[in-house]
Amino acid sequence: MSGPTPVHLLTGFLGSGKTTLLRRMLADPAMAGAAVLVNEFGEIGLDHELLERVDDTVVLLKSGCLCCTVRGELAEALLTLHSRRARGEVPFFDRVAIETTGMADPYPALSTIRSHPVLRSHYRNAGVVTTVDAVNAPGLLDTRLEALRQIGAADLLVLTKTDLAPPGRVADLVARLAAVNPSARVLTAPEATAEDFLAEAGDTPAAPADALPHHRDGNFRAETPVTSFSLEIEEPVDWTGFGLWLTMLLDRHGENVFRVKGILNLQDEERPVAVHGVQRLVHSPVHLERWPDGRRASRLVFIVHGLDHARIEASFRAFDAMSRRVTARGSVA
Ligand SMILES: Nc1nc2c(ncn2[C@@H]2O[C@H](COP(=O)(O)OP(=O)(O)OP(=O)(O)O)[C@@H](O)[C@H]2O)c(=O)[nH]1
């Protein structure tokens, strides 16, 4: 192939719908030649499983956040893909889509691709697509610097969850987005096609360090770190008890639970069930076709702001034990 391979960066705050959008895009024939790099924040990587296309051109970048620790890993992954393509060791790809973590500042990834001495002769930035959650974004724009910088970097803003937000709120959000990034196109998720996703936007400008706020400005909550932890549960989980526990957790602490996602091994269910919580919003569970790694166990990832991991785990374990006792009593009766 001639010229550097285009790289499309998909970003957006935690739970804003990146994987959902990417899955839909990858089903389009226009994306058939795309290699995919997925970067996840959290100890258990699930997104590459949820994409449901697992071959050598889907690569999980494991360690932390794309903006800092993973820069080297990103460069290495892109270079490895390039050499493996040259040797015919992976299916041919003619573009790359990178899904960043929901906590990533996208500018360092763009600058890695633009400035890395070797990378820049093999790859070029083709565009940045940012998903914006119409339910949660209004609160995040006041408090999370990452959300603002993701919007600032976008060539295309894809509004997700407009089906769950009142139209007036969506209109207000569009006006706020235009104030942060007037040059980006704005589409709702159902409107966005693979053609939009792949539209060449030219090189995204270098980090507009002065145009966007810094940690110390406004109400941005950078002092308390956002942290993640995970739970693994071997025993099948009771769905009613789990649903009740999650609803209580998010009712009480939703503002500081940026993300809960995972796969549940439910009592009386053969297939795994994917669950997603985003702040106070709990999405409908979805059955998956197969168990990742063939291992039948529940795995949950939590991304929280200033909450005690051990207390959340203890409350889950207590609730789980209680619902098990109730189920056992019910089955004896
Ligand atoms: N109702 C509705 N739900 C959506 C929409 N887009 C995404 N979701 C749901 O939102 C939840 C989170 O979506 P993901 O695609 O996993 O979000 P993400 O940005 O990849 O999440 P992280 O990788 O954790 O940052 C899932 O339950 C999706 O089904 C939408 O437009 N409408």
Automatic annotation (TrEMBL):
SUPFAM superfamilies: Hypothetical protein YjiA, C-terminal domain, P-loop containing nucleoside triphosphate hydrolases
Annotated protein name in UniProt: Cobalamin biosynthesis protein CobW
The keyword Kinase belongs to this UniProt entry's keyword annotation: no
Domain CobW C-terminal: 226-320
Signal sequence coordinates: none
UniProt similarity note: Belongs to the SIMIBI class G3E GTPase family. ZNG1 subfamily.
Gene3D superfamilies cross-referenced by the UniProt entry: CobW-like, C-terminal domain (3.30.1220.10), P-loop containing nucleotide triphosphate hydrolases (3.40.50.300)
UniProt keyword list: Chaperone, Hydrolase, Nucleotide-binding
Source organism of the structure: Methylobacterium oryzae
Catalytic activity: GTP + H2O = GDP + phosphate + H(+)
PANTHER family reported in the protein's UniProt record: COBW DOMAIN-CONTAINING PROTEIN (PTHR13748:SF62), COBW-RELATED (PTHR13748)
Keyword Chaperone: yes
Its biological purpose: Zinc chaperone that directly transfers zinc cofactor to target proteins, thereby activating them. Zinc is transferred from the CXCC motif in the GTPase domain to the zinc binding site in target proteins in a process requiring GTP hydrolysis.
Cross-referenced InterPro entries: CobW-likC_sf, CobW-like_C, CobW/HypB/UreG_nucleotide-bd, P-loop_NTPase, Zinc-reg_GTPase_activator
Superkingdom in the source lineage: Bacteria
